[in-house]
Write a structure and sequence with these properties.
122 residues, Ribosomal Protein L30, Chain: A, 3-stranded antiparallel β-sheet, 56% helix, structural constituent of ribosome
């Protein structure tokens, strides 16, 4: 069976966040792997790099008791539609925004924590 990397990448570019989240979960189940493990290892190894870091990824790790408010906050922050924002919150831990400045990352974290969500900066 031929493996067409370019067509797979093109399909992924057109997919919604919810579809991509479902794909990651299916791959994790099928191959008995975790997509989160390499991130944790890389984060632990780069402890000294945090001091000079100039961009951050904001990750929601739990929606908290006020899930609807967390979804609304994610929509406001990302500009996503309701379905995609709900998929992101339901699929936590999920990256809300990537490559943002420290100030913007802290602002996003504050907005999400204000509605009870648990957030980490990477």
């Amino acid at each position: 069976m031929a493996f067409d990397k370019d067509s797979i990448i093109a399909s992924l570019k057109e997919a919604s966040i919810t579809d991509l989240n479902d794909l990651v979960k299916a791959i994790e189940e099928e191959f008995d792997v975790s997509a989160a493990a390499p991130v944790a290892v890389a984060g632990a190894a780069g402890g000294d790099a945090d001091a000079a870091k100039d961009s951050y990824d904001v990750e929601i790790t739990a929606s908290g008791d006020q899930k609807v408010k967390a979804i609304k906050a994610v929509r406001e922050i990302t500009g996503l539609g309701l379905k995609d924002a709900k998929g992101l919150v339901d699929g936590a831990p999920s990256i809300v925004k990537e490559g943002v400045s420290e100030d913007e990352a802290n602002d996003i974290k504050a907005k999400l924590e204000e509605v009870g969500a648990t957030v980490t900066l990477k």
